[in-house]
Amino acid sequence: MRIVIAAVGKLRRGAELTLIEDYLDRFAKAGRSLGLPKVEVVEVEDRRGGGMEAEADLLSRAIPTGALVIALDERGDQITSPDVTHRIACARDGARDLCFIIGGADGIAPSLRERADLRISFGRMVWPHMLARVMLAEQLYRAATILAGGPYHRE
Ligand SMILES: C[S@@+](CC[C@H](N)C(=O)[O-])C[C@H]1O[C@@H](n2cnc3c(N)ncnc32)[C@H](O)[C@@H]1O
To answer: Which residue in 5, 42, 91, 136 is a FRET match for 129, CA 20 to 30 A apart?
Structure first.
């Protein structure tokens, strides 16, 4: 199984990258005994001004064949942390790759959004893509702690 975050934009050193690395590192440590792989981050950038469609093309190339594709989108479903955890566990148990997609300033092109198996929202407000990436990394770590039965997640 692979877990990929395919995201538009290259993060420079700074607070967001520090947080993402920290959460993904914690996920890797917690996930080791749970049969979860390290998360791979694939950053894409269209330097030719091709807009969302060009970005969608680059993002599509980062999606492993047959992966369950989850697009992050403010118009998507608002699901719970245990729900995300369940989907990650199902993918793991079915030996299926997982790919999370995060768009750029204009969002994810409708063609790719529709292709996703699931669209999830962190609320109806729009967040900068790098903060969406931080929140996703935290949710992955949270999911690992839920699967491990740890005290981090409380309802
Ligand atoms: C600046 S936002 C783009 C907003 C753009 N107006 C749109 O139509 O999607 C950049 C990316 O961050 C992620 N994002 C931002 N807000 C989000 C939210 N509330 N829930 C889930 N993902 C979000 C999405 O992947 C989005 O494509």
So the answer is: 91
Q: Please report whether residue 39 resides in a domain.
A: yes
The two structure tokens encoding residue 119: 């669209």
Residue of 129, 131, 136 to test ligand 1 pocket, by largest number of atoms within 8 Å of CB: 129
pLDDT digits (tens, 9 = 90+) for 34-62: 999 999 999 999 988 889 999 999 999 99
In a domain, 153, yes or no: no
Q: How far is the CA of 97 from the centre of ligand 1 (A)?
A: 23
126 in a labelled binding site: yes
User: Could you tell me how far CA 3 lies from the centroid of its own chain?
Assistant: 8
* CA of residue 82 to ligand 1 center, whole Å: 22
Q: Domain for residue 154, yes or no?
A: no
* Residue with the two structure tokens 């005290």: 151
Predicted confidence (pLDDT) per residue in 60-110, tens digit: 999 999 999 999 999 999 999 999 999 999 999 999 999 999 999 999 999
Location of structure tokens 């998507």: 76
Written as six digits, the tokens of 130 are 């790098």
The domain tally of the chain equals 1
107 is in an annotated binding site: no
Residue nearest to atom 5 of ligand 1 (CA): 107
ipTM of model: 0.98
The structure's pTM equals 0.97
- What's the CATH number where 87 sits? 3.40.1280.10
